[in-house]
Amino acid sequence: MKAVYITGGTTGIGLELAKLYLSQGWKVGVCGRDKSKFDENFFSHRDNITFYQVDVSKREEIQASIADFSKSIGLDLLIANAGIGYKFKSKVPDFEFSYKMVHINLLGVMYSFEAALAVMIPRGKGQLVAISSIAGYNGLPGVSAYSATKAAVQKYCESLHLDLRKFNINVTTICPGFVETPLTSTNRHSMPFIMKASKAAVLISKAIERKKMIYAFPFLFSSFVRLLSILPRTWYRFIISRKSLDYSKES
Ligand SMILES: NC(=O)c1ccc[n+]([C@@H]2O[C@H](COP(=O)([O-])OP(=O)(O)OC[C@H]3O[C@@H](n4cnc5c(N)ncnc54)[C@H](OP(=O)(O)O)[C@@H]3O)[C@@H](O)[C@H]2O)c1
User: What confidence score (pLDDT) does residue 117 get?
Assistant: First the structure.
């Protein structure tokens, strides 16, 4: 039986991924800071799921939990999904919250990968996945640190994808568009092509199965965002400053 550890698997995209892998017969490990979210969502699947009360921004905590899971259950796949976003967008950055975001969204991924690789490299196989965002393709207004952390995760994984092939370890970056989860529930701006978390989980799992280097979805919206990323920046500034696209105007 295969084993997957999903950071932040207690709500939203991580929860739907956990449910999907459980339904396919995998053993699943999830972590989160708040155990009550796990208790609410996993009452009927206790047999094949293990919860770790862990903060991914604390290196020793996340590493101890991944080490424990891989030793007692196994570790074929690690999905670094835990992340936070801004509740309210602002033109003046909230620096305290931005630092917290770097610790969770970027260092949390590195700490998780470090722990997984300690097991996967000696074993000569494994899969690492990070949930970035299409917000990582461009510096978006109002969410500077979020865009920065997601861009950093994309490039970090791109390098690792190349480096780790010789160890038979595949690295996939996932870049979702808008997904209906607690993270997006406070957004007051329009969210084009928003999709259910259960549908996002199916698309993500297929990309993981195909060992894609990077997978951005939904297709139309992510294509538009990727086109923006290759335009001259003066054109980008003109387009993104239109009222409907400037999310920092919501607060
Ligand atoms: N929803 C979207 O539209 C969207 C789009 C693109 C990318 N993403 C990315 O997808 C990932 C999942 O987002 P989501 O929308 O599913 O969010 P969510 O519903 O808010 O879920 C976040 C999960 O991460 C956990 N978490 C947060 N901080 C943590 C920490 N420091 N340590 C351990 N666990 C932590 C949360 O549990 P606790 O709070 O209990 O810790 C929860 O299980 C994030 O990386 C997000 O940036 C989301």
Answer: 98
Q: Domain coordinates of the chain in residue numbers?
A: 3-250
14: buried, middle or exposed (CB in 10 Å: 19+, 13-18, 0-12)?
buried
| Short-list 106, 107, 160, 112, CA closest to 133 | 106
Give the whole-angstrom CA distance, residue 222 versus residue 183: 19
CA of 245 to the centre of ligand 1 (A): 23
What's residue 87's pLDDT? Answer: 81
Cβ of residue 18 lying under 6 Å from some atom of ligand 1:
no
**pLDDT given for residue 251 in this prediction:** 46
Is the CB of 181 inside a 6 Å radius of any atom of ligand 1? yes
The verdict on whether omega for the bond into residue 93 sits within 30 degrees of 0, i.e. cis, is: no
Classify domain 3-250 at the CATH class level.
alpha beta
- Give the residue whose CA is nearest to atom 36 of ligand 1: 8
pTM comes to 0.96
Whether 120 is in the pocket of ligand 1, judged by its Cβ within 6 Å, is no
pLDDT tens column, 111-165: 999 999 999 999 999 999 999 999 999 999 999 999 999 999 999 999 999 999 9
Q: Choose one of 30, 100, 183, 225 to mutate for the ligand 1 pocket test, by most ligand atoms within 8 angstroms of C-beta.
A: 183
3-class secondary structure, 174: strand
The token pair at 133 is 């965002």
For 138-151, what is each residue's pLDDT tens digit?
A: 999 999 999 999 99
Question: Which atom of ligand 1 is nearest to 14's Cα?
Answer: 16
